[in-house]
Amino acid sequence: MGEDGTVHAELRRNTPDTSDATTMNDLLRGMVEELRGGDAGDGVCAIGVGAAGTVEWPIGRIRWAPNNNYENWDLRGDLERMTGLPTVVDNDGNVAGLAEARLGERRFDDMLLLTVGTGVGAGIVLGGRIYRGAHGLGAEVGHMNVNPDGPQCGCGNFGCLESVASGTALTRMGRTAAAHDPDGMLAHLAAEDGGEVNGRHVTTAAMAGDPTAQSLFERLGRALGTGIAGLNAIFEFEVVLIGGGLVDAGELLLGPTRRAAREFHYGPPHVRPIPEVLPATYKGDAGKIGAGLLALEETIAPERAGLPSNE
Amino acid sequence: MGEDGTVHAELRRNTPDTSDATTMNDLLRGMVEELRGGDAGDGVCAIGVGAAGTVEWPIGRIRWAPNNNYENWDLRGDLERMTGLPTVVDNDGNVAGLAEARLGERRFDDMLLLTVGTGVGAGIVLGGRIYRGAHGLGAEVGHMNVNPDGPQCGCGNFGCLESVASGTALTRMGRTAAAHDPDGMLAHLAAEDGGEVNGRHVTTAAMAGDPTAQSLFERLGRALGTGIAGLNAIFEFEVVLIGGGLVDAGELLLGPTRRAAREFHYGPPHVRPIPEVLPATYKGDAGKIGAGLLALEETIAPERAGLPSNE
């Protein structure tokens, strides 16, 4: 990636089933070698990683990744030893937030990015910097409780924002709706695919005008917007950007999200303005671009961050 | 107040019914004159104010105070003009948090103070500094939504943390309980006082062993602890301190609060430790001491703040 966020070369590998640290290190070393041997290889001068899971900052150790087999993996140290390149490792939501704040359509200094996909990832930027919590293990907005009696989340808790406002929630709600209405569009779309309802079916049905599917987006957006309002009471964001797969549904998601963020906004809007809720600039690319940008700012060109003068 | 937080002189005045800015300025000017004329008057070198309401930082303008008649009051400017003394004005929860972080039983750099009284006030300290949001109008943890279907809050919204975890919530729940059980202890205590049930009656009954009153504290503590867990997912606090009138109920409040903060804690505790929930050091005095301390650190002795070296 170049300084302006342009991607010069790209390589994708799926996470192997056995995603322990040794397997992952082998895979990553191979990928770095392949990229350095390619057309854009001469310019490679640093590595930035945006990793799923809980990453201790700045040491870049992955402390916990509920969906993978590694734990307490010194990813930054391993990459630096293997490649000799300066490396930064951060949570994927954090770096995606950085990309949106610095290189999105407008520059923002106090901003929340919510990545609504399978889960709800978050990037919080305060005063132009990524906010990560006291030790880099914070900013886990998706696991803020929004209803103690809510459904169980992948993390084990009940009623996290992620449990009611993610693609997983959409799938769960879509399956319940299809079970109650076996002749409805959701059940038909799933049957055509020969399986159970998933979030993509709900999106397709909602975009085709199915009122049941649209009501599920209403419900999901309302939960998301209520969570956003609570975060605005604390952080006074300039803007809240929504990224991730579900933003493809456009106003079906953003409309109810905005309405709830307004309904539950704290204080008179002429005193505490209601932040706009907008779609993110970089869809699936924010993590990749943000990781590169962070590597640039932290290891090569710190002055590039151009932080506000009051920081 | 001295540098160590010792209070040298104290003067109390009730807010007049007509709490417009002119009336309040007259009152405050009189109080400052009286204090400067007293025994400790020679040492008066700055003014620190901890004000209820939404205070723009650092300019010290009170933008909005739902329970008073002033709005957009340049309190800092007025006090400096009237007294000639350097002045700081901040939200009362913020300065109370500062007092607890710097001068409490232990020093904390990443800490939440929740002041559970009529409402729920909050002081967030991050990296040794008060966190106020982007413009000083944030950190309003009491108005974070914890249940979109919850009861109406004094701010007008429904389901704020304050609406379910404050003295006002305790009063509301106590009245409902007494209406359902007119022979119960709550109804009797209210009748003895010749009025309706209030939070104090619920506390008295709970401390005397009344199971109904104790269940209301369970409910209140559970809501408070759930909110705390969500904030810990974002901030990774070292500790959460509980102050305000309701902390007099001790373990009746703190027990269920701790249990819920643990139940809804995000991540394995060996990776993300569960912060302790402890009673605050300074009960009703935290705001006063914190306001003095902030004046000292901001206007006279900034080096006294002793901020961590990584800040």
Order of helices and strands of chain A: HEEEHEHEEEHHHHHEHEH
Largest interface: A-B, 49 and 49 residues
Mean pLDDT of chain A: 93
Adjacency order of strands in the biggest sheet of chain A = 7-6-5-8-9
CATH class of the largest domain in chain A: Alpha Beta
GO molecular function, one term (chains A, B): glucokinase activity
Family (chains A, B): Belongs to the ROK (NagC/XylR) family.
EC number (chains A, B): 2.7.1.2
Protein name (chains A, B): Glucokinase
Topology:
The structure is a homodimer of 311-residue chains.
Chain A: H1 21-37, E1 47-51, E2 54-56, E3 61-64, H2 75-83, E4 87-91, H3 92-103, E5 111-116, E6 120-126, E7 129-131, H4 161-164, H5 167-180, H6 185-192, H7 199-207, H8 211-235, E8 239-243, H9 251-263, E9 276-279, H10 286-300
Parallel strand pairs in A: 1-4, 5-8, 8-9
Antiparallel strand pairs in A: 2-3, 5-6, 6-7
Index terms:
2 domains; globular; Nucleotidyltransferase, domain 5; 311 residues; five-stranded mixed beta sheet; homodimer; 9 strands; two-stranded parallel sheet; alpha/beta
In short:
2 copies of one chain form a homodimer. The first copy, chain A, is an alpha/beta fold.
Overview of the molecule:
- The structure is a homodimer of 311-residue chains.
- Chain A is globular and about 60 Å long.
- Chain A contains ten helices and nine strands.
- The mean pLDDT of chain A is 93.
- The first copy, chain A, has helices at residues 21-37, 75-83, 92-103, 161-164, 167-180, 185-192, 199-207, 211-235, 251-263, 286-300, and strands at residues 47-51, 54-56, 61-64, 87-91, 111-116, 120-126, 129-131, 239-243, 276-279.
- In chain A, the strands form three sheets. A five-stranded mixed β-sheet of chain A has the order 7-6-5-8-9.
- The first copy, chain A, has two domains: 21-97 and 285-305, ATPase, nucleotide binding domain (Nucleotidyltransferase, domain 5), CATH 3.30.420; 106-279, ATPase, nucleotide binding domain (Nucleotidyltransferase, domain 5, 2-Layer Sandwich).
- The first copy, chain A, is α/β, with parallel strands linked by helices.
- In chain A, helix 3 packs across helix 10, helix 5 (167-180) packs across helix 7 (199-207) and helix 5 packs antiparallel against helix 8 (211-235).
- Chains A, B: It is an enzyme of class 2 (transferase).
